[in-house]
Design goal:
By secondary structure, this protein is mainly beta. Helices cover 8% and strands 35% of the residues. It is globular.
Length: 231
């Protein structure tokens, strides 16, 4: 047999390893208090109940940022896999923001301007259902029962974002080069430097719980996938 053919697979394997490199899982919530987290407004919207973060906006919208050791800013995450276990009270709305920052909409409603939101929603009024990449790839039927604990896994590699709910792929989206958004959502894009992760306390009628939040960083491979929504 040709020796070159035998050696070829060995030469190819090391070249593929960097795209698969990842760190160990790192918990972002200690199950006891809000250490490492900071609200951008109305901090009393956030508490820890029975080992879970409770999101219940006391007035207007509030967002809880993971800041880590950055008391006056936030920790940046660029390429990563984020896994969140959550559940809701009936008729509730929330979300997980990625690649975001503290900039808010000028309408005074404290809506975050930048990055992407992965929707969490058990309400009938809001048509964008749980798992949606909000206002970019929307689901009209929720794949989970939000009254029970469920797992959302969000992966960002390069320009590609995927969302799994209970290990089911529901969104696979690749941000186009020089993407253009509607004027009121111009900031819905990935930050080339990475940015913050934040939880949403949507309104005083909504209650969501988050009992496990963990992350691992990834190396970014070349992204070639097209936008896909899986039902």
């Amino acid at each position: 047999m040709n020796l070159k053919l035998l050696l070829l697979p060995l030469l190819l394997v090391p070249m593929s390893l960097p795209a698969l490199a990842q760190t160990a899982w790192r918990p972002l919530f200690n199950g006891q208090d809000l250490a490492g987290w900071k609200a951008n407004a109305y901090p009393d919207s956030w508490s820890v109940v029975d080992g879970a973060i409770r999101a219940h906006a006391t007035k207007s919208c509030s967002h809880l940022f993971y800041v880590g050791d950055h008391a006056d800013g936030f920790e940046r995450f660029k390429d990563f896999e984020l896994e969140v276990e959550s559940r809701s009270e009936p008729d509730s709305n929330s979300g997980v923001f990625i690649h975001t920052d503290h900039a808010t909409h000028p309408d005074g409603m404290l809506r975050l301007l930048n990055g992407y939101e992965i929707q969490l929603n058990s309400s009938a009024i809001e048509k964008r259902k749980t798992g949606s990449l909000y206002a970019v790839v929307d689901l009209d039927v929720s794949p989970v029962d939000e009254s029970q604990w469920f797992t959302t896994r969000i992966t960002v590699r390069g320009q590609r974002i995927t969302v799994h709910l209970n290990d089911r792929l529901v969104v696979d989206y690749t941000e186009p080069a020089n993407v253009e958004r509607p004027k009121d959502r111009a900031g819905r894009r990935l930050n080339p430097l990475g940015a913050a992760i934040a939880l949403q306390g949507h309104d005083p009628k909504s209650v969501f719980y988050f009992r496990s939040i963990k992350i691992r960083t990834l190396d970014a491979p070349a992204s070639t996938s097209a936008q896909t929504t899986l039902r």
